[in-house]
Amino acid sequence: MSPAPIVEPDVDAGPVDEPPAPPPPPAAPDADWTSDPQRVIATQLALAEAMKPIEAAASDLYAPDRAAARQAVADKYAKAVAADGDVRKKIDVASDKFNRTAADMVARLDDWVKKFTSGPLYDLLEQRKKTRAALATKLGGNESARDAAVDSAKSWAARFADWSAPGDAIGKIVGGYVDQIDKLNADINNDVAADTATLSFWFDVAPKHLQVSDKALSTDAAAARDKVKKALGDAGYTDLANALDPAKARATGAVYMIPAGDLPGKRKSVLASWKDSAKTLATAQAAFKLDPDDAATLKARWDKLKDDAWLKDAKAALTATAS
User: Fold this and answer.
1) Is pLDDT of 2 > 90?
2) At what angle do helices 37-62 and 263-290 cross, to 10 degrees?
3) DSSP-assigned states of every residue in 97-141
4) Is 122 left (phi over 0), alpha (psi -120 to 50) or beta?
5) 4 in helix, strand or coil?
6) Residues 297 and 142: beta-carbon distance below 8 Å
């Protein structure tokens, strides 16, 4: 039995003060009370737990008595991103520094990106890729799905917190990297540990700046970014290449500069994604609870089946069938 469809509020319609009707807890796909009541119960119990923090967040966005607080969030952000706002000024300074530094290294990147295919950096990246793949093979399907769902729900909760004070969140991110840029640029241009400085620029600074900034890259800075991104992708390090694509981070709720008027709708959209992640988490937790497949559980299960240990249960099963 499929769950009733949940109608999301129109995220482009502006502030909505009426709280939406609470959605009914969904059952896991292909499970209903008649065929799989344990799964239905486990899923609904898990969903009730996962929805607890979302209840308070929904109140922040929809409760009539929170209207003044919502307006305060919007007003604070509008002030921060105005032409003379603190966050706008930080982004503009960071963008100028980023463009200049990236542009300065365009030519030398042709040689530098070869480090992704040979040498000590390549060795470390390969070890990272192989370890990640090996770990994935050690996880059971239900265990892996549960772990991914837990991480996703936690991430959306953190993203909602960021969008509840986006100016502060963006300012903190920019403040964490902007003062590094000039030093990195000087080290690269003066050949002072230039390889390390280049690494720091593209893996420490660039992902953060590209995520939050709404300023276009200069032609040369974009060319530099594209060289690094393409080399990473060609070498098979897709996750690292994706870190240089701001659309990837923003699609999973990462905070970034948006027009002040878009903030109410953005907060609702992030809340809706958080709620969806809670539903996925509930389904995954129920599946793992009913059929755990982590290494410790499988080991204990195998201890009952290895050698001749299984015979006792087999004889009992056959005896029960015969009677």
Assistant:
1) no
2) 160
3) HHHHHHHHTTTTHHHHGGGGTSSHHHHHHHHHHHHHHHHHHHS-H
4) alpha
5) coil
6) no
In terms of Cα–Cα distance, which of 219, 185, 217, 214 is closest to 200?
185
State the average pLDDT over residues 44-64: 95
Which amino acid appears at position 246 of this protein?
P
Quick: pLDDT tens for 132-144.
999 988 999 999 9
Which string of b and e fits 125-147 if b means at least 16 CB within 10 Å? beeebeeeeeeeeebbebbbbbe
pLDDT the model gives residue 308: 83
The position carrying tokens 């990246």 is 125
51: tokens are 């929805």
N-term to C-term CA, the chain: 36
17 Cβ contact partners less than 8 Å away, ≥ 6 residues apart: 62, 63, 64, 67
- DSSP state string for 198-263: HHHIIIIIHHHHHHH--SPPPHHHHHHHHHHHHHHHHTT-HHHHHTT-HHHHHHTT------GGGH
CB atoms within 10 A of CB 272: 17
Rounded Cα distance between 3 and 279, Å, is: 11
What is the per-residue pLDDT for 251?
A: 96
pTM of the model: 0.83
**Residue 193 region by backbone torsions, left for phi larger than 0, else alpha for psi between -120 and 50, else beta:** left
Q: Is 101 left (phi over 0), alpha (psi -120 to 50) or beta?
A: alpha
Compare 224 and 28 and report the one with higher pLDDT: 224
Residue with tokens 């960021």: 162
Average pLDDT over residues 238-245: 97
Residue among 109, 113, 162 nearest 274 (CA): 162
Q: Is pLDDT of 244 > 80?
A: yes
CA 300 to chain centre: 34
